[in-house]
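Data availability (excerpt). The following record was deposited with the supplementary files.
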Amino acid sequence: MRLLDALIPAPFVVPRYDGRSIANIPATFGALWDVPVSPLPPLATELWEPLVGNGVDRVLFILLDAVGWHRMGRALAQDKSTTRWLARAGAIVEPITSIFPSTTAAALTTIWTGTPPAQHGIVGYTLWLREFGVVVQMIELQGARRGLGADLLAAGLDPASFVPVPTLAQRLSAAGISLVVLIGADIHGSGLSRLHFRGTERVIPYAGLGDCLAILRAVLEESQGKRALLAAYWPSFDTLSHLHGPEVTNWDAEWRVVTTALRDVLLHELSPAARRRTLVVITADHGHNTVQEERLVVLERHQELADALLIEPTGDSRAPYLHVRNGHRDVARHYVEEHLHQAFHVLDSEEALHAGLWGPGAPMPEVPFRVGDLVLLARDGYALEHSPRTMPMRGRHGGLLPDEALVPWIAFRLD
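Predicted structure:
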């Protein structure tokens, strides 16, 4: 961590893989059942041990896409009913960090494998995969540019070897613990979900929030007394934040709808038997930063930098990877530091990898090629695009500012 602290200045947030990040959540689940599921340590004990009590059979895991710690805090300041509910439940409510990059493809792969990005290899939203010779969008496992026709699964990608670590489901099932996951019908069977849910007992699609919570309630009732991780992924905050930005009052309205439904449709309707020895965990994969149109850096308008690159930037617009032409690393770095210093903090990828930016442990062999030569950390309101967008996304993430890199850890018992 000391090496990483030296590379990343304030106000950027250093990912806390040592016990204060989402990367430590799988190991925490394993610790509840005394099952090793991750090479990383569990979360700091004060975040969960006070809730263990007489033991935990089941964990209800609610994963909210794009709920940042600071944004949630502003919503809770207006939502007194949820604040009182969490207090009555004896909830532990604390901030933890995301991983790097703070983006869904990398973060969810970390959660569903228990390994940091350096080891599982999904280190961004778009990646240069040299083994396929194409830049790939990692959610759908498709070519990042429309019309390329690169469908990696159709081209022979083997999920078991592409992500060369066991999934959380595989580790839990080996110990007799089941994993049931609910995801939206629109992403059920997607490329990324096929990577994540190898070995999962059930992956159940849902049509909307009410459907999701009704299914969860039935699963909780029917699995009484069994050791299980019951998980649901809810994406609406991410969609809303990309579209409108995270600061709109619509976000607060969505928060109230989701938390009220969670209480009234799911938790308050459970039988006493279904509540026994059950722990609820609510967290997120990342937050959002509001990107200002006048701070959108378009690579085509910086020809000297563009000429130094071998391919278009990969990664995320707020955490881009620059793959430079042979002998042009210093040229590219100098250009960013001289002309774009107000927008980005620049890191040498090899140095950052060694320091543990993508997590500890020996990196997967392809990772050094996927993270390029230079990494840019976007400052507040900035992002990098290859070419102008007609409708740029207002809210973005991937970087390490607090609003995108800090997320909530909420945990309480149902009994």
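Summary of structural features: The CA atoms of residues 133 and 157 lie 13 Å apart.
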